[in-house]
Amino acid sequence: MKILVFGATGKIGSEVVKLLKDEHEVIGVGSRSGDITADYTNAESIEAVFKQVQNVDAVVVSVGGDSNFKAYHAIEDEDLRLGAERKLVAQFRIVSLAEKYLNRRGSVTLTSGYLSHYPNEYSLATGPFNAAIDTYVKQSAAFLKNDLRLNVVSPAPVVEAERTRTGLVSAIDVAKYFVESIHSEQSGVVYRAWGGLTVPEEYSL
Predict the structure, then answer these.
(1) Where do runs of H (alpha helix) occur along the chain?
(2) Which residue among 26, 52, 165, 198 sits deepest, i.e. has the most Cβ atoms within 10 Å of its Cβ?
(3) What's the pLDDT tens digit per position in 9-22?
(4) Which residues, in sequence order, are CB contacts of 3 under 8 Å at separation 6+?
(5) What DSSP state is assigned to residue 103?
(6) Alpha helix (H) ranges present in 26-120?
(7) Whole-number CA gyration radius for the chain
């Protein structure tokens, strides 16, 4: 397969590339470095990537970690706009463009995060957008053209391998879920890389 990895130079994206590169043709896309550089929040920049790289079978989107973390009462409109654009809208846009350019039966895997279900006082300018991405994937996957599949990986905080414990995961642990999404036949799935945490009872209703 030919696979595009957005965020290929980040902690998780770089591990995704390592896991895939021996068996697939992997093209890494980064904002400052990579096989291709592009601004993942800019529609023209992303479309240029798809035009440059033809016959893509799968897209990994490991981006959106640059939201602002502030105490709840310190959050301003700009913090919400930043989270909405860089975490939410940018990923939706990539799905829309992938639908236009991917090979039939291709796949797209997005990134959300466990703050959708485990909020804290400093997460309210990002956590709700994680939840929105999960919902978008579950509700829209059935409507994509050309039999494309759409999934999302929701990681807990990423730490060094020796520091992992319940609720803390390594980058390679998360990367394995992206690989599973690419190789499976599933669509509309939220892969929760939460380090053993489960969905809290209040969210399971």
Answers:
(1) 11-20, 43-52, 77-83, 90-101, 127-140, 171-183
(2) 26
(3) 999 999 999 999 99
(4) 20, 24, 25, 26, 27, 56, 57, 58, 59, 60, 182
(5) P
(6) 43-52, 77-83, 90-101
(7) 16
